[in-house]
Amino acid sequence: MFKWVLAICGIGIGFSLISPDRSVSLGSGVMAPQVPVQRTTSSKVPFFHNGSEITPLADYSIEAKVLSRKNYRGRGSKVCPIDFALGWGKMSDESILAHFDISQSGRFYRWSTSQYPIPRGEIIASSANVHLIPANEGIESILDSIKTGQIVYLEGKLVKVRSDDGWEAVSSLTREDSGGGACEVMYVEIAFQTNL
């Protein structure tokens, strides 16, 4: 059967680090039923973090299943070292996810399937690649500990970034888009696993 492939968002250039497969299985069923929550931010005043100018665009929180995760080095990695591919709704159900091959590289999240278990539009609207900017070393340590397959809660801001090494990224502000520029770029202030 013809295999459809969709690349969801690619911003910037990065070199992926090879890391051991760290994944867990939680079984079938929707594990993260709620859609992400986006609100108007109280301040859009830029601030500096790890040599980058960060401009808040919206307040954002999400509880989702980690479909894939990758650490990066190279341009932008000083401020934004980690990407999570996240799924919610039916894209947090392992019986649905079993139909997909999911990967990340070059700041892209990719999925492929030979048989759609749910409509393509629902896949796009229920999953996303998120460039993660840890607010501090504690948050970065928590993000580093998260395994593929776990449920994670993240809270912070969707942002625009201008890095001192020339890397720039602007967060998507909708869950309905795909392709280049569709990633969320998130400054993470709170992070924890919810499936403990």
What's the mean pLDDT score?
A: 88
The 3D shape can be described as globular
Provide the number of structural domains: 1
Order of helices and strands: EEEEEEHEEHEHEEE
Distance between the termini: 39 Å
**Proportion in helices:** under 10%
Going across the major beta sheet, what is the strand order?
Answer: 5-6-9-12-10
Point out poorly predicted stretches: 1-20
Q: What is the count of DSSP helices, taking H or I runs of 4+ residues?
A: 3
Radius of gyration of CA atoms, rounded to a whole number: 16 Å
Structural class: mainly beta
Which range does the strand content fall in? 35-45%
Strand count, sense and barrel status of the largest sheet are:
5 strands, mixed, barrel
Question: Count the strands?
Answer: 12
Keywords:
single chain; 196 residues; mainly beta; 5-stranded mixed β-barrel; 3-stranded antiparallel beta sheet; 10% helix
Structure commentary:
The protein is mainly beta and 196 residues long. The chain contains 3 helices and 12 strands; from the N terminus they run ββββββαββαβαβββ. The strands form 2 sheets. The chain has a 5-stranded mixed beta barrel. Strands 1-8-7 form a 3-stranded antiparallel β-sheet, with no helix packed on it. The N terminus is likely disordered.
